[in-house]
Amino acid sequence: MGRKTVEFRSIMPGTAQQLWDFHAQPNAFGKLTPPPIFIQMIDNRLKSLTEGTVDFRMWIGPLPLRWVAQHEPGPTPTSFKDRMVSGPLAHWEHEHVFTEVPDGVELVDQVTLEHKPGLMGIFTRLMFDGLPLRFFFMYRHLRTRWGLKRM
Predict the structure, then answer these.
(1) pLDDT in tens, 36-95
(2) Nearest to residue 67, comparing CAs of 41, 47, 95?
(3) Which structural domains are found in the chain, ordered by start?
(4) So what's the pLDDT on residue 100?
(5) Of 20, 25, 69, 144, which is least packed with CB atoms within 10 Å of its CB?
(6) 10 and 122 in contact (C-beta within 8 Å)?
(7) Predicted TM-score of the model (pTM)
(8) DSSP sequence for 83-96
(9) What is the pLDDT of residue 117?
(10) What percentage of the chain's residues is helix, strand, coil (to nearest 5)?
(11) How far apart are CA 64 and CA 28, in angstroms?
């Protein structure tokens, strides 16, 4: 099947800097993860949103998935990227792009992913693709909007 790219867009209240600050909070990842998925941090070596690694266990109900992500600069000054170094998929790259627009700031989440073959690939297609992935980002965007209003 190969790699595919999906995109999720929303206009948020506030500025690109506020959106950046929201994502830079130490507990942002946990806030942005919908139940029944829970994050157990193993080793957080992030120096900033654009530099460092984070090693975590993602619990999907009783199933633990280990994931190591490298954070890097994104394509614009108000963007960053996390790239899976090791984990359940063959490839995962997630760009977070914040762009000022007349009504606030546009949040674009662009994910490029590829599944592994075999049973793990079947599992990741069920959990990290299609409708579940759409729900995941819908939840993230709602939580981001709510978080920005509270900042």
Answers:
(1) 899 999 999 999 999 999 999 999 989 999 999 999 999 999 999 999 999 999 999 999
(2) 41
(3) 4-150 (3.30.530.20)
(4) 97
(5) 25
(6) no
(7) 0.94
(8) EEEESSSSEEEEEE
(9) 96
(10) 30, 50, 25
(11) 20
State how far the alpha carbon of 121 is from the alpha carbons of 33, 35, 89, 112, in Å: 21, 22, 7, 15
Q: Are 109 and 140 in contact (CB under 8 A)?
A: yes
Residue 1, pLDDT > 80, answer no
Q: Reduce the DSSP state of residue 128 to 3 states and report it.
A: coil
Token digits for 84? 């899976």
Q: Rounded distance, CA 88 to CA 56, Å?
A: 12
* 35 to 61, 113, 121, 140: CA distances (angstroms): 9, 22, 22, 11
For residue 150, what pLDDT is reported?
A: 87
Q: Is the dihedral of CA 25, 37, 116, 129 positive or negative?
A: negative
What does the block give as tokens for 30? 């946990």
